[in-house]
Design a protein that fits this description.
259 residues, alpha+beta, four-stranded antiparallel beta sheet, 7 helices, 64% helix, 12% strand, elongated
Length: 259
């Protein structure tokens, strides 16, 4: 009997297991699976309009900024174009000035060459004629040339020749009153100029004219002067020498001559 009960129990265990599975399956069929629901986020209309307004304002500001930048670029580009045009005009002006300067330089060179030739032929004629006439005639020839060709480079030579003839005329005038050294000494002694103080003007009056040059002595204690008259001493053989009168403290020390 115990054996039969054991068999019975063994048969009941699988049945119970099957019953439990069926119950769980039925329960799982009866109870639907719950799917999690995601809640949609929503905002209020006022907040939506605010955000939309901010986005539109930002878009408009960006558009204005881009427009401003474009206009600035156009203005700067236009200014650059005007600057380039201005530089091109300056380049053209400088080029024209350079060409004008070159032309002026060429014209000046030609004028200078012509100026150098100016009066050259006439000067040669006058120079040769002046050799054959006296000082007065030669002076007149050179003065006429200088008056006629004052801007000629050769006028410098003419002026030098004129000074030469004027000096020669002066020398000839001086020689008219020239006399021997002994005669000058007698005149000075006759006026007492070796023993008494006489102003220089009185001495010049006696000689007949002012000296051609004078030189002060080296003494700091005495007033020493040497006066020179060119070609005022007539020597042997008709030679002419310079007259020198040496004075100290307004008195004549000695009279001499030199070539």
């Amino acid at each position: 009997m115990r054996i039969s009960m054991n068999k019975t129990i063994l048969l009941l265990i699988p049945l119970l297991f099957l019953a439990c599975q069926n119950e769980e399956s039925a329960r799982s069929v009866e109870e639907p699976v719950q799917v999690p629901v995601v809640a949609e986020e929503t905002i209020a209309m006022a907040e939506h309009e605010r955000l939309l307004g901010e986005a539109e304002a930002a878009t408009e500001a960006m558009a204005r900024e881009l427009t401003h930048q474009v206009r600035s670029f156009e203005t700067a580009f236009k200014a650059k174009e005007e600057e380039v045009e201005s530089l091109e005009v300056k380049v053209l002006e400088l080029t024209a000035s350079l060409e004008a300067y070159k032309k002026q330089a060429r014209d000046s060179k030609l004028s200078l060459n012509e100026l150098r030739k100016l009066g050259s032929a006439e000067y040669k004629v006058i120079y040769e004629r002046a050799k054959t006439v006296d000082n007065e005639a030669a002076i007149a020839l050179y003065e006429e040339f200088i008056e006629q060709f004052p801007d000629s480079p050769i006028a410098g030579k003419a002026r030098a020749q004129l000074r030469k003839h004027l000096t020669e005329r002066k020398i000839l005038e001086n020689r008219k009153d020239a006399t021997t050294l002994r005669t000058w000494e007698i005149k000075l002694k006759g006026e007492g100029m070796f023993v008494r103080e006489v102003p220089a003007a009185k001495l010049f009056e006696l000689i007949g004219r002012n000296p051609d040059s004078s030189k002060r002595g080296s003494s700091s204690e005495y007033r020493q002067f040497t006066y020179v008259w060119r070609d005022y001493v007539l020597g042997k053989g008709g030679e002419y020498y310079d007259l020198l009168i040496h004075r100290t403290n307004d008195k004549v020390d000695r009279v001499s001559f030199e070539e």
